[in-house]
Amino acid sequence: MDPVVIIGASVGGSTAADTLVQAGVPVVMIERDLARVKPCGGAVPPVAFREFDLPQQLISRKVHHALVHSPTERQVAIDVVGTGATQDDDYIAMVCREEFDQYLRQRAVRRGAALVEGQLLGLAVDARGVDVQYRERDGGATRVLRATAVIGADGAYSPTAKALGLPNLPRCVAIQERIRLPEAQMARWLDTADLYLGREVSPDLYAWAFPKKDHVAVGIGTGPAHSKDARRLLANLKQRIAPELAGGEIILQEAHALPMEPRPQMAFERVMLVGDAAGLVVNTSGEGIYWAMKSAQLAAEVLAGSLPNPTVARLQQYDRTWWRRYGSMYRFLRWLQRWGYGNPRQMEVFTDMCRNRDVQRLTFESYLRKTMTPVPWLAQLRMTGDIVGAQVRHLLPSRARPEAAIAGR
Ligand SMILES: Cc1cc2nc3c(=O)[nH]c(=O)nc-3n(C[C@H](O)[C@H](O)[C@H](O)COP(=O)(O)OP(=O)(O)OC[C@H]3O[C@@H](n4cnc5c(N)ncnc54)[C@H](O)[C@@H]3O)c2cc1C
Questions:
Q1: Which domains does the chain have, with CATH numbers?
Q2: Cα of 6 to ligand 1 centre, how many Å?
Q3: pTM to 2 decimals?
Q4: CB of residue 96 inside a 6 A radius of ligand 1
């Protein structure tokens, strides 16, 4: 049998490769640039380590607290605690993508996947397979590889989706600096991830400071309407937290797009899309690592089960299973992003909502363990009361406060 060819060997591509080789399917991964580090905040839920059997050494720092900053700098401190009986997995794992991606890629290769450094140029699908045209990185020769099927795990700009004639997805842009701090300054960030809300740092998403072993990753995300302002928004964030970054040295500047909407269809004639290529980033948080790995695993399982005859009808089991499992979560989080980050007033309401203990625990339960716990009616009442109360308070003109005074707005 011709191999399955996977375009992109980042978190999604390597997970698809690993799943397929373990099912006995021959695999070739084609990765454009093996030295490139994917721009990323690197926050991963602990459930990923269990589900994908990842070693704890990949965790650069475990974070047990979060601090949400409203536009007017009201702060809400939150413990990273879910609703589970044990708290062993109640932390956010911060990883460095250069180590994380490398581990996944090498594990897939160790288990039997072939890896080629080259750039996808085009696909020609016929009734019996796919011709994959690519340019080798070393020497620049153009080659054609015959594949049984193709998995596009090639990110937000997905050349695989382009080769299928699919439209671009709406994209936001995220830009980040990794800043190494003097030891005394680093103490502030040891165990806390900070989220910053406010028009001057992100008109429609949020900004962050995520600590790693020896540095802090400071970044902002913003939607298509403001992407040209991304550098200015990041400069505003750095000004807003300047005392906490004093003496810092920038060790890396990085930026990349994130898809803002899932694709309506992810499985086609002998071709499947996973991760960012399929638009599977969660809106409210910009979380995409777990979802890229999870979608890649599911797509690979469906594909392996449909070989040697991967008809579209069989491959679309991937679409059906995915949306049955996660459709309501994506819809809810998309609504939450529009409701909570829509304007400075709603960002204040969102911050108030974060004070509610039930909201905190349910949010972290769904993030840490990817499970939706049934909510007792008393907790539902408390949450509804708090949210309505916050909404009303912030609608009253007397409660309006000026946004944090930061230049450049
Ligand atoms: C600044 C920033 C911060 C983020 N922070 C977080 C976070 O904290 N937590 C989180 O969960 N998510 C975060 N994300 C999102 C996360 O990085 C992505 O969702 C995730 O990397 C998607 O994985 P993927 O495998 O689908 O695609 P990618 O990681 O984008 O990988 C695509 C791969 O395809 C390769 N490729 C592209 N074109 C070709 C071609 N023509 N031929 C061959 N190969 C090709 C690329 O080189 C790349 O290796 C962040 C994103 C950004 C930009």
A1: 4-41+96-169+262-329 (3.50.50.60), 61-94+170-260+341-409 (3.30.9.10)
A2: 14
A3: 0.93
A4: no
